[in-house]
């Protein structure tokens, strides 16, 4: 194993564009081999070999630890709040096992299909407008995701796609705050000076999180009142499929745990799906994937038996994680995607507009693009 102690050992990384941490990982593997240990304010290991990665997954143990952003960790510490994504060990497993059954049951998302279908219909209505800029399209899709998650988390429409109010100051503030939060976390400081005094980055994160959690708590309290109203009227039963209702009626979960868990879902936090930087190294390796740099969407097609025509190693493509710390919101996320894609394909012929050739991938916590993708939606 090659061991790197200082940034002086990164000569091939200097020219990597900002935000391309995947290229940094690939460059380090090219220079030092399949196992690279970084010793920068703490040890970390980049694994470039699929067999080694399988070994890692098999030996995660009972309490796998999640990578934490120090700024977020410090925020929750100073606010004396505990969330599923910010705790580890036995405490994490206890909370996970108590709320997981409500999220992971096979019919957990089915009761939301009707509401979600209406949200997807609103998405199509907005995308069908003429002369939308790529940035406006991106904003509408972002709002669609927010509105969809609001249906799951709070069992109601939030109005993110309402014609008359979607550009009101309050409706704009939510997506703008989430973008600012991710942008700040993407430029996470190397030195944890925020532990000594409130740095500008920490102040930004704190302001964003205070607003997001505050809004989530407001919606949760409204949901609680609705549950109490139904209970008083005798209309509430233990087999009620609604996610909030089932959590609130559970004796195993406290009201505060429900609030923080649902807030994290809405704000994109709870064991959220994060793209491993080394996944790029695995998927771009010709030994693992045929013609990895070519655009071949048919590689993902499956035959009648459900197997891919071109095998792709399972361990190289796990968008929702694996084992006990996998993404609890997988079914919810997939339903949001499937409904949007189905509605768009039913209503439009989709193509790429001018300027799409020079778009690159970058990382702002999650993979994104250097600029908005210019989609063309031609009504059928």
Automatic annotation (TrEMBL):
A single GO molecular function term of this UniProt record: heme binding
Binding-site residues for heme, renumbered to this chain: 327
Cofactor: heme
Record-linked InterPro entries: CYP11_CYP27_families, Cyt_P450, Cyt_P450_E_grp-I, Cyt_P450_sf
Keyword Oxidoreductase among UniProt keywords: yes
Pfam families in alphabetical order: p450
SUPFAM superfamilies, sorted: Cytochrome P450
Keyword field: Heme, Iron, Metal-binding, Monooxygenase, Oxidoreductase
Gene3D superfamilies linked to this entry: Cytochrome P450
Keyword Heme: yes
Sequence similarity: Belongs to the cytochrome P450 family.
Protein name: Cytochrome P450
Taxonomic source organism: Pomacea canaliculata (Golden apple snail)
């Amino acid at each position: 194993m090659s061991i790197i102690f200082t940034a002086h050992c990164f000569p091939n990384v200097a020219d990597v564009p900002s935000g391309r941490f995947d290229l940094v990982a690939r460059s380090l593997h090219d220079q030092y081999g399949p196992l690279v240990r970084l010793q920068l304010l703490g040890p970390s290991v980049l694994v470039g070999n699929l067999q080694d990665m399988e070994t890692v997954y098999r030996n995660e143990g009972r309490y796998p630890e999640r990578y934490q952003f120090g700024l977020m960790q410090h925020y929750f510490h100073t606010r004396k709040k505990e969330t599923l994504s910010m705790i580890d060990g036995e405490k994490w497993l206890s909370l996970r096992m108590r709320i997981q059954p409500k999220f992971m049951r096979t019919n957990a998302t089915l009761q939301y299909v009707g509401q979600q279908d209406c949200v997807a219909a609103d998405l199509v209505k907005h995308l069908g407008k003429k002369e939308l800029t790529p940035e406006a399209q991106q904003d509408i899709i972002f709002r669609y995701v927010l509105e969809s998650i609001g249906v799951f988390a709070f069992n109601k429409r939030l109005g993110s796609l309402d014609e008359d109010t979607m550009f009101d100051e309050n409706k704009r503030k939510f997506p703008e705050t989430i973008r600012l939060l991710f942008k700040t976390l993407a430029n996470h400081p190397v030195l944890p000076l925020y532990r000594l005094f409130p740095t500008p980055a920490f102040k930004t994160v704190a302001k964003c999180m205070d607003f997001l959690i505050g809004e989530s708590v407001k919606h949760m309290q409204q949901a609680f009142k609705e549950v109490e109203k139904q209970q008083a009227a005798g209309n509430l039963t233990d087999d009620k499929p609604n996610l909030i209702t089932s959590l609130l009626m559970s004796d195993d979960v406290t009201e505060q745990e429900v609030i923080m868990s649902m807030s994290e879902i809405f704000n994109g936090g709870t064991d959220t799906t994060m793209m491993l930087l080394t996944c790029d190294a695995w998927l771009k390796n010709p030994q693992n994937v045929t013609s990895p740099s070519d655009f071949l969407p048919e590689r993902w097609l499956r035959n009648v038996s459900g197997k891919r025509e071109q095998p792709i190693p399972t361990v190289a493509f796990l968008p929702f994680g694996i084992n006990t710390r996998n993404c609890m919101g997988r079914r919810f996320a997939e339903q949001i995607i499937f409904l949007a894609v189905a509605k768009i394909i039913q209503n439009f012929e989709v193509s790429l507009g001018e300027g799409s050739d020079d778009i690159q991938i970058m990382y702002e916590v999650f993979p994104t693009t250097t600029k908005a993708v210019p989609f063309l939606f031609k009504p059928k």
